[in-house]
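Reader question, answered in our methods column.
A reader sent in the components of a multi-part assembly and asked whether the whole thing could be modeled at once rather than chain by chain. We filled in our standard form and ran it. Here is what they sent:
COMPLEX SIZE: four components
ENTRIES:
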Amino acid sequence: MKTDGTARSKARDISSWSPSDQARRDAILRAASAHVRHYGYQKTTVADIAKTIHLSTAYLYNFFDSKQAIGEAVCTRILSDLMSELDQSVRQITSPSECIVFIFQYLAEVSIKMFRDDRKIHDLVARSFHEHWTSPTAYNAELLSILKSVILRGRETGEFERKTPLDETCEAVRYTTETFFHPVLLEQNPRNLIDEALMVALLVRRSLLC
Amino acid sequence: MKTDGTARSKARDISSWSPSDQARRDAILRAASAHVRHYGYQKTTVADIAKTIHLSTAYLYNFFDSKQAIGEAVCTRILSDLMSELDQSVRQITSPSECIVFIFQYLAEVSIKMFRDDRKIHDLVARSFHEHWTSPTAYNAELLSILKSVILRGRETGEFERKTPLDETCEAVRYTTETFFHPVLLEQNPRNLIDEALMVALLVRRSLLC
DNA sequence: TGAATGACGAATTGACAAACTCGTCACTTG
DNA sequence: CAAGTGACGAGTTTGTCAATTCGTCATTCA
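And here is the structure of the entire assembly that came back:
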């Protein structure tokens, strides 16, 4: 049942998706998202999703390879939306070192908020981390890209040191963020993320300043 | 069944432990440790432990409140031994900033080693983290103390900055180590801990240097 | 009196069958 | 032929009941 990244796609080839196919995918994802938010991923059956958009389960498999693929898509969208929002916010903060602090706090806050107010979605994300779906990888890449832009900016303005290789710095910073957006950790250890995030953010900032 | 820290002790009061009682506790822990190492915590019954030291299960409960209490004690000892070893090593490294790097690498290595070569023990430790036993708390305190001594030394030799409050720095550094000794995380995400640990160690070092 | 235990209730685990879910394929329909 | 489906096998989850295991207590023994 567990599918690796190496599994070949069985759904129709992406290149042949017409606009109406895209709409179908969208409808599927919206239905899935709603059901998962209410009942959780586990208790959402493919039949449930099919029923709400008035299609047979068999036909759904023309648009997604598996139930997991639907879950991954829902999850990817959620994480991607978060990263977009973070990106927006960061662009409006002029000071790079303030950006760093903001990023840590944002991750901690959004993480806790999801845990408190949207538990079923949290569970989905936790599962995606736990089972190494593609969504966390995509999320990491997006976060890394945001960090890179901030750190680059800091180096250009002369606020940040320039001796350490840029990529090394960025990756290291991203590692330190991992504790603050990690559903699996959170559900096992609901400590005071906010305060910890601030302290680590300040530490990271000190390591960046020159 | 789940006992919180608030639960009152049912085993005999600690103040009344005679040396021979201590020996009994030791025997119990050694038997438990051996069984757990072979069969895992779950499959180790209190009867198993009692049998190997030729006592009844009922009598064991004079020395430990519960099976979990035995597990915690075993776990505490394991973690404490690791911290002692780390402390020893760190004392023999003169440069504080080398100490920092060493600590991160030690944690990552020992973590992986336990996962690879002593899986059943790893599972026990993972459970202790997962269920918030007292052992991780004790471990954290010991690690924090080691970090404090190193950072203090670095500040005294003028190698490390002295503006940030000592406690804040120490706690922040400890947070960043959490990713590298965390059985729960490891079993879900067997990434390349060693390299990550090095990169984060260097970042932390940069934040400490003045 | 202190060391130690057998026997026992409550709670947990394991085993196994029934019900359900996933995903495929041949087939219908317009 | 494109859009869509019912029916089905493989594999998984759920429910149930018996067997274990945990932890307590009254009791024995030296």
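What stands out: Residues 1 and 66 of chain A are 10 Å apart (CA to CA). Chain A is about 70% helix and 0% strand.
Send us your own complexes using the same form.
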